[in-house]
Specification:
The chain is of the alpha/beta class. The mean pLDDT is 89. The two termini are 35 Å apart. The chain is 55% helix and 14% strand. Helix 6 runs antiparallel to helix 7 and helix 15 packs antiparallel against helix 16.
Length: 418
């Protein structure tokens, strides 16, 4: 079993690179099957979020898997290599444990990554690319993450991306209570943002989504003191001008808000400012929008500093978490090494079984001829003994002086000779 993980994250690659390597949900199954069917990979799972794209696999040819990633996304291999981290065996195990525990996230200790990992495993199971090795790895990963979060304060006082968006909006507008908020999308991140903004009781919240039912469902759940309603995604050009705060996070492969659309909205608003947060990867808002006056546009990476607030206070928890992870890596590698011995042990047993059957068949034939059972048993036992000892005896006789010493020590250990 050759465990190997590779990928990019917010530390190794900028946003404009990360968004080019995203696996959209609909394409995930086909990508996994293509990797396993045609690129010398036995098992595979892919996690693809706004902050990372990582491939975990069981393969004898890791470079073939790396080249597949570049080819799949039509990304120059030489350029991609400068952003990739490649993690064999225990390095891959430790990385998976750290990711699931929130130690490798932009938001230290954030819990969303665990759910994203579970979705990645579910996708691999549905695609038929999750085997014994990766199944064991991820089950152990989830167990370690639970232990870290239960035994340490790693998630205490963390500032989520959604909370950071609210804080930035308050810096610009002061009191959000007088503002109109437009939420584009209806996934988990927008749901979190909706809860944080709704708690500030803005004048109005509008939810825009490609699927009207999901937008309506989120709008219904947000009905508190704030007026909330849902609109269709194709109404964005008109809706932009009506809102002061825009938060977007969809799964669109291309931007849905262009510079021209925002220019028209600003003109209609008579240059009253718009605060925009684009949490999508690939981005929902064209980067050129940031060049416009009266627009405050923030992408995922722009929120990095804010979400690190409180991280210093949790360094003690980080040390505790790393200790738990290190011990868990040792345990997993013991299991992996044991699994790697299975083919050798099976071959030894098969070899012994062939000899046993051969001697037994010969003994049965002799019994059928009416020969003395005691002599037959003696012959059977001697035959088995000779065959089982032939290989180590032959190895000792054929070994060089240096090899003979090592073999002698090994045989003494195996047979517990003094």
């Amino acid at each position: 079993m050759h465990l190997f993980a590779f990928g990019i994250n917010h530390q190794s690659a900028p946003l404009d690179v990360r968004e080019r390597l995203v696996f959209q949900g609909a394409a995930m199954g086909a990508a996994l099957r293509d990797l396993v069917d045609h690129h010398a990979v036995k098992e595979a799972a892919i996690i693809s979020t706004c902050n990372r794209t990582e491939v975990y696999c069981n393969t004898d040819k890791p470079e073939a898997a790396v080249h597949w990633l570049a080819d799949f996304h039509r990304f120059p291999a030489a350029e991609l290599d400068s952003y990739l981290y490649k993690l064999p065996r225990e390095q891959a195990v430790k990385h998976a444990f750290r990711v699931a525990s929130g130690l490798d996230s932009m938001v230290l200790g954030e819990p969303q990554i665990l759910g994203q990992l579970k979705e990645a495993v579910k996708s691999a199971e549905q695609a038929g690319t999750l085997g014994t090795l990766l199944h064991k790895l991820f089950q152990r990963t989830f167990s370690v993450a639970k232990e870290v979060r239960t035994s340490t304060e790693i998630g205490a006082n963390s500032v989520s991306m959604a909370a950071a968006a609210v804080r930035l909006a308050e810096r610009i507008f002061g009191d959000i209570a007088g503002q109109r908020v437009l939420l584009i999308g209806a996934g988990e991140m927008i749901d979190l943002c909706a809860q944080h903004f709704a708690a500030r009781h803005p004048k109005q919240i509008t939810v825009a989504n490609r699927t009207a039912e999901r937008a309506a469902d989120l709008a219904q759940r947000l009905q508190t003191k704030t007026r909330v309603h849902a609109v269709a995604l194709n109404e964005l050009p008109e809706q932009l001008a009506l809102h002061d705060i825009v938060i977007s996070c969809t799964a669109s492969p291309l931007p849905i808000i262009g510079k021209g659309m925002v220019e028209r909205a600003i003109k209609s608003r008579k240059h009253r400012p718009i605060f925009m947060v684009d949490l999508a990867v690939p981005r929902d808002v064209e980067p050129e929008v940031a060049e416009l006056d009266d627009v405050f546009l923030y992408a995922v990476d722009d929120l990095a500093e804010m979400v690190r607030v409180g991280q210093d206070a949790r360094q003690g928890a980080v040390v505790q978490a790393e200790a738990i992870i290190d011990m868990s890596v040792v345990d997993f590698m013991r299991w992996l090494e044991t699994r790697e011995l299975v083919p050798t042990i099976r071959a030894m047993r098969d070899h012994a079984e062939r000899h046993r059957r051969h001697e037994l068949e010969r003994a049965i034939k002799l019994l059928a001829k009416g020969e003395d059972p005691q002599k037959i048993l003696e012959t059977l036992s001697h035959g088995l003994t000779n065959k089982f000892l032939h290989i180590p005896s032959h190895a000792l006789n054929q070994a060089s002086p240096e090899e003979r010493n090592e073999l002698t020590e090994l045989i003494n250990r195996l047979y517990r000779h003094e």
